[in-house]
């Protein structure tokens, strides 16, 4: 009787997980199927039919439109997300390491301000950031999107947690005894040991910048500087008057999720517990 109840419990859990997986994957399945359809099948609701396979034509239209401006937007998004996430991860991990390993006056009060920054929505900061960009002359430049991406209060908080859990104080003391300076200790010892935290912050920030829409909308007016999110929105706005934009929007959206999938699949190997196991003897 007990084994029967256990089997029913496992079956119920598996059914719930299956439903959740289908619910999660359905939008991606729809996107893959819709990217192969022309405007008529999209607007007619025949997304999941086997008729009207037109992926090659959609890709050619995407490439040819305005001399391939879509792939310029793609490159802009890679620049914003890649450089911004890398810089933000370094800043966050360094700040979290300092908050965890060093003692200085007003540390906890300063960290409380960092936590306060976590509570502020990014949209509320867009207007102050725009005014600062006006003062510094960086409006409608790459820097207008890149510089705000370098700061992430949640990344600092997360990095402090990882630093406390992954970097034993004894290892840092051993490095200092061997003659390593503070910067060398952080770069060669601390950063390597907290690499799972670095990757976590990188992926969070990469995804946030890649999907960021409001800040580029406020900062940029030159279409050549648009990221994918803003460029696809511009096309979607035109689709109401010209339905031929719909296949390009859907196909472009499918290509837009590819870097996120690659980033998560490639970097997930760094998410391993116990990287410092055995480092203290």
Brief account:
It contains 15 helices and no strands. With 281 residues, it is mainly alpha-helical. The radius of gyration is 24 Å and the shape is globular.
Overall pLDDT, averaged?
Answer: 86
Q: How many helical elements?
A: 15
Order of helices and strands: HHHHHHHHHHHHHHH
Q: Major sheet: size, sense and barrel closure?
A: none
Shape: globular
Q: Classify the beta-strand content into a percent band.
A: under 5%
Secondary structure layout:
Elements: H1 2-34, H2 39-44, H3 55-64, H4 69-101, H5 107-119, H6 122-136, H7 143-149, H8 153-166, H9 169-177, H10 182-193, H11 195-210, H12 214-219, H13 228-239, H14 245-256, H15 258-267
Helix pairs in contact: 1-14, 3-14, 4-7, 4-8, 4-11, 4-13, 5-8, 8-11, 9-10, 11-15, 13-14
